[in-house]
Amino acid sequence: MADFYQNGIVTTLHNLADRPIDALEAELVQFSEKRPMALILPSLFSELEGDALPKIVDHLTEVPYLSQVVIGLDRANLEQYKHALSFFGKLPQHHRVLWNDGPRLQALDKELAALGLAPKELGKGRNVWYCMGYVLATGKAESVALHDCDIVTYERNLLARLIYPVANPRFNYEFCKGYYARVANGKMNGRVSRLLVTPLLKALKKVTSQTAYLDYMDSFKYSLAGEFSFRRDVLNDIRIPSDWGLEIGVLSEMHRNYASNRICQVDIATTYDHKHQDLSLNDVNAGLSKMSIDITKSLFRKLATQGETFNAETFRSLKATYYRVALDFVEAYHNDAIMNGLELDVHNEEKAVEMFAQNIMTAGQSFMDKPMETPFIPSWNRVISAMPDVMERLKEAVELDNQEFGAML
């Protein structure tokens, strides 16, 4: 049971009463008359064969308020795409699968690349970007939610609570971030958020002068959550990062484009678990190590746009400050775990902190070596300006794929 405390500069919507899902969904059905709703599901084909996504789809078949479900499918050949069409075919809502590796979408991607407008990296950011473009192209929804496809603890009230703040016509929120306790199987998870992002933000407040942005970022209880929702107009101007900085980058974009009173966060799950990345202590190009570097660089880039100047001395001071703050957090998390009867390995926690501290220096060096590096995918407004018919062509490609290969099922 959460408390009602409001901290930071964005509104927190708590779960104070465990409101029944039927009551939430009844309201959402009413809201859908004024604000039709969509769900984006960025997926790897491998997730169709896992334990989480089949259960998620089963839950979604019972959701009464969605007008549209958009599935972005990565790493799939033709047979796998056709399997995906069948797999998602049980959804009663209007739905489409974007075959991102198919010849039609690949051809469009090459044209955009020739204009310097296509995503440069494969991954979730690229997948989400094309899904957002398709939502804009179809015009079927005013409020849109997005969540991952590997949530093994999924219940449909997660979606209801996630989309409610941007679906309720009486609310003025343009964006909502989901949060939850990363506790599962008797363990405290969420190492990158707990051991990197939170102490790094505290350290940056001490080392830099950009308190307004840092206070905003520090307001989010789980900034790395992959679940968020937004009004459709957000999609036009937002720039989606293509690397592991996606979640941090989206929050930064919302800070750039909207006042804090148009942004909120909501408690969407009592327990939450999904697949876990390896720590990758000895490989900066994999697992949580690469993730930590990308996230740290995304913060440096944002602070630089605010006028902050970085040099080698800044990064050394930041590393030392972060390390002390993070170790204090390890003790706090350990005591919290003990009181709640949870497992927490202090040795492994401190190894993670040591790796993250080193990666702050690695990220800083990379930032100085490539100060003009821009992993952001252009906004759809810019793409439309350069290719005015891109929306129709994107929609047509998805429809032709569905007609040609869906008819074979």
Automatic annotation (TrEMBL):
InterPro entries: Nucleotide-diphossugar_trans. GO terms for molecular function: transferase activity. It comes from the Bacteria. Keywords: Transferase. This is Glycosyl transferase. It comes from Vibrio algicola. The lineage of its organism: Bacteria, Pseudomonadati, Pseudomonadota, Gammaproteobacteria, Vibrionales.
